[in-house]
Amino acid sequence: MDSCWCCPVQELYVDAFLHNNRLEHMVQVMSFHPDYLACFLKTQQYMLRCYGPLPYDYRHFIAIMAAARHQCSYLIGIQTNEFLLQGGDERWLKGLSHIPKKLQDLYELNKIMAHRPWLISRAHIERLTQGNDNWSIAELTHAVVLLAHFHSLASFVYGCGINAELDQSDGHSFESPGNGGGNSGKSPLSRSPHSLTGSSAHEMEGGIEVLMEKMRRLTEEAAAEEVTQEELLKRFERVETLSAELPAASKQAFSPKEDILCYVDDAEFTYQDFAKRGQPTELPTFRAQDYSWEDHGFSLANRLYPDIGTYLDDKFNTAYNLTYFTMGDNTDVDTSSFRRSIWNYIHCMFGIRHDDYDYCEVNQLLERNLKAYVKTVTCFPERVTRRDYDSFMREFKHSEKVHVNLMVLEARMQAELLYALRAINRYMT
Ligand SMILES: CC(C)C[C@H](N)C(=O)O
């Protein structure tokens, strides 16, 4: 990798090693972006090993349950180790029917948050928090943060094609004949090519020059054009209808493997396209202005689980604002419109609308391959292939592709949390 071995990264590596007893591949990949990595490590350390109302074995088991929604054996493996190190009961690892009822009850929320968070209602929160030996609101907030963290982290792991750690079962193996690539041949990115987009003509869209020109033009036009609220709403609704149609998945290819199956219930419950959810006139839009992270989510999270709001806020802001003013080999570029369109596109897939934003920009700045990739990583991470990774933003550097994945991780996590926290808030008021 081309990041330099200077102090900040080295110090972060030492910290990560001391916390995790290993330097995970995922941490190494994140180190392309040291400012982000610093926030990530602090936050994860806090929610898993420091202050919080949930016992440690619960925290790691919730992580396992969350990662299993996307069949992410990489994260399941790491979290299983941690679970056992914390003295977790080995019987729980036999699967969902062997865990305490309290954790079983959380499964429905896990499932909905992972795939269709817009369905979370105050009734879900009520069911979990009432009765004997049930969830306290503080515990539930901790759980919700863990769930969102591990769902989104699974997106990152698949999106970057992170290989298994050497001590995991797929981690150290010989290359199979004819597989000349540098990884174990087991990682999702190295799976047989299954193209998102099919024709190679699409793969050649634009290029950096064209994209930069579009960004320049949009800035000029935006200054000149006055757009009404109704028109902005229409443009938002159009993003999804114009959005990348992903090919239907074959059931077999994506049904959970044997060792993961025990942590999965209702595997067929997956993401559903926003545009197909109801009548176009009554799309269940979530207006970011009505319940935003900055004005609502942040303070509620902090109140129910002290300091987590601050950690998350730092991490969201770092990911959202991260820039090196580069695009491939070009320097001094203002990339904010491009990055904003990626972030808002991710929110859009969850029905979250920022009503001061012109969604026209999403369709203009994000080429089809990029949209299809971002959509797959966000909604169906287990389906990403090496070919998908190679064919989006072809002229960009690996560090920039990882940068896009960080945005997916954070925007997705924020979207899940917004829905969950809004439901908690509704229950409490
Ligand atoms: C995702 C990338 C295009 C981001 C870009 N390299 C920047 O520094 O802002």
Automatic annotation (TrEMBL):
Where is it located? Cytoplasm
Q: Name one GO biological process term.
A: regulation of response to reactive oxygen species
Region annotation Disordered: residue ranges? 171-203
The terms describing its cellular component in GO are: cytoplasm; nucleus
Gene Ontology terms, MF aspect: L-leucine binding; oxidoreductase activity, acting on peroxide as acceptor
Q: Does the UniProt entry include the keyword Oxidoreductase?
A: yes
Matching Pfam families = PA26
Provide the reaction this enzyme catalyses: a hydroperoxide + L-cysteinyl-[protein] = S-hydroxy-L-cysteinyl-[protein] + an alcohol
Annotated InterPro entries = AhpD-like, Sestrin
- Which ranges of the sequence are coiled-coil? none
Question: What are the UniProt keywords, alphabetically?
Answer: Cytoplasm, Oxidoreductase
Q: Which family does it belong to?
A: Belongs to the sestrin family.
Q: What is this protein called?
A: Sestrin
Q: What is the native source organism of this protein?
A: Capitella teleta (Polychaete worm)
Lineage, highest ranks first: Eukaryota, Metazoa, Spiralia, Lophotrochozoa, Annelida
